[in-house]
């Protein structure tokens, strides 16, 4: 498992670290994600509005644990007349055109690979600039006025509600993913129309609002303004997390928002005395789905800590027993 220091170092060095192909592929473009590539595909919707094309280039973002559906998507696109471009953290050589690093930060590499390949190099560079600015504000050596560390303190011991406008529906997905995988804590996204949820969710049991915090992610709209007014009478705290300064509700802003969430999640893990790296059980589950075994190891990119995750026998209880002993 990646140590806290190693993970924070990787996080600080992430902006500008994409080193894959940058040549644009023929359009029109579409993108679909499976496994580790699902979140990146959602964040890319501001650049590429379609998930399937019969011409041009079909980007398929995947990982070894979701190789079968990725292979199906690529084959369907090719049969329809498109060129499939497979971007993955590993798998059989024939299923990978672009190999990206695996782990919780793979989303950045998937997204930047597609941004460049779809002819949006300017947006990719804008995302890197915004992330570089955030790294300077959120790095571990910044002790005072560190926005990520301060927000982690606010979330400690709480399961936040996650709300965003319809054009930013990838953000609650991103925050839930990172708060769980990296921050080791539960959060609750409110998908769709928030008004139906916030007006009724606390009526039968008002005490469920005690100590509750809601995060409003990205830009607000009239419905979110009303939702906020309602929540102010039902929960303890509401925190608005806008897009980073210098960005807006586009690809650069959403990727930078994801990056800020990663910093918050890392510091939240620190508060819980947890390591922000992936737990061994996740690597074991992914390996089972990927069909890995000692006699037939397929191509796989290095994990975040630069080493292949060790996969042992399917002793699912071993992690829980070890935690109880600790």
Automatic annotation (TrEMBL):
Pfam families reported in the protein's UniProt record: bact-PGI_C, PG_isomerase_N
Residues in Bifunctional glucose-6-phosphate/mannose-6-phosphate isomerase C-terminal domain copies: 145-284
Renumbered residue ranges of the record's region Disordered: 295-326
Keyword Nucleotide-binding tagged: no
Domain Phosphoglucose isomerase N-terminal: from-to ranges: 9-119
Biased composition (Acidic residues): 312-326
Protein name: Phosphosugar isomerase
